[in-house]
Amino acid sequence: MITGASSGLGEAAARMLSEQGATVVLGARRAERIEALADELRAKGGKALAITTDVTNAAQVQKLVDETVNQFGKIDVIINNAGLMPQSPLERLRIDEWDQMIDVNIKGVLYGIAAALPYMKAQKSGQIINVSSVAGHKVRAGGAVYSATKHAVRVISEGLRQEVKPYNLRTTIISPGAVESELPNSVSEKDVAENIQQFYKDHAIPADSFARTVIFAMSQPENVDINEILFRPTTQEL
Ligand SMILES: NC(=O)c1ccc[n+]([C@@H]2O[C@H](COP(=O)([O-])OP(=O)(O)OC[C@H]3O[C@@H](n4cnc5c(N)ncnc54)[C@H](OP(=O)(O)O)[C@@H]3O)[C@@H](O)[C@H]2O)c1
Asked: Best substitution site from 181, 185, 199, 205 to test ligand 1's pocket, by max atoms within 8 Å of Cβ?
C-alpha cells in the first residue's frame, strides 16, 4: 500500500513493485491519476487497486488500509510516501504552508502507522516504510519547516522500530536526495521555486532510483531489517 502514488516516487515504486509481482494499493487525492495507473498495471497482468485518499484525514487513511485488508486479506507493506515541499524562508511567514507540511509530511505518516499497526501486530509480520529525505539529515536556510518534518519522520520511525520488536515488524526510512518528480511544483514562492527547479534540472535522478531502494528493503529475508537508506544523485553536494 503506497500513499502519494499519483506521481513521482510513489508512482515509480508502484510500477516497479507491480512489474515484480506485488499486489499494489494506490492512495492519493487525484483519483483520475491513481485509477489510470491501476488500470494500466492491471492491463499488464498486475493486481492493483486505487483508493482516493487525503492523508491529512485519519479516517480516510484508515479506510485505505481497511480496504486493502478486506480485498487482499492482509497488508504486507505500507509505504508512507505522500509529501510536499513548499520551502520558503521563515520570515515570509507562510504559516498556511507550515501547517500543510506538518499535516501531510508528519501527521499523514502517523495516520498511516496508526491504520496499519493493529493489522501488522495481529499478523506478526509487516513492514512500515516511511519516506524522509536528505532534508531529514541536513537543514538549509529556506528549508527549516520541510527539514523539520523530515527529521520528524526519521525520529518517529526510529521510535517505532524499537517499539515493534515484539511483533516481528520491520521499519525502513528511505531518505532520497534530488529525484525527478512533481515535488518542486509544490514551492509557491517564485524566487525559491526558480532556484529549486534549476537545482533539480542540474542534478535530479530518475524516480526508478527510489523504486529500487524500496524493492531492496522489501526483498530481504524476514530476519533482516533495513532501517534506513540514504541516497543522492552522485553530483549532489549537500
Ligand atoms: N523528489 C525528491 O527529490 C524527494 C527527495 C526527498 C524526499 N522526497 C519525498 O518523497 C515523497 C514523494 O514525493 P515526490 O518527490 O514523488 O513528489 P510528487 O511527485 O509531488 O508526489 C507527491 C505525492 O504526494 C501526494 N500527496 C500530497 N498531498 C497529499 C495528501 N494530502 N493526501 C494524499 N496524498 C498527498 C500527491 O498526490 P495527490 O496530489 O494526488 O494527493 C503525490 O502523489 C515526499 O514525501 C517527498 O517529501 C522527495
From this structure: 181
Q: Ligand 1 pocket by C-beta < 6 Å: which residues?
A: 3-10, 28-30, 33, 53-56, 81-85, 104, 131, 133, 176, 178-179, 181-183
pLDDT, average across residues 52-75 = 98
How far are the Cα atoms of 4, 57, 78 from residue 25, in angstroms, in the given order?
11, 18, 9
* C-alpha of residue 80 to centroid of ligand 1, in Å: 10
What pLDDT, in 10s, does the model give residues 128-168?
999 999 999 999 999 999 999 999 999 999 999 999 999 99
Atom of ligand 1 nearest to the CA of 9: 16
Cell of 46: 498486475
208: its cell numbers: 526508478
By DSSP bridging, strand 77-80 and strand 127-131 are parallel
Q: How many of the other CB atoms lie within 10 Å of CB of 132?
A: 27
**Whats the size of the chain, residue-wise?**
238
Say if CB 196 and CB 187 are below 8 A apart. yes
Taking the alpha carbons at both ends of the chain, their separation in whole angstroms is 31
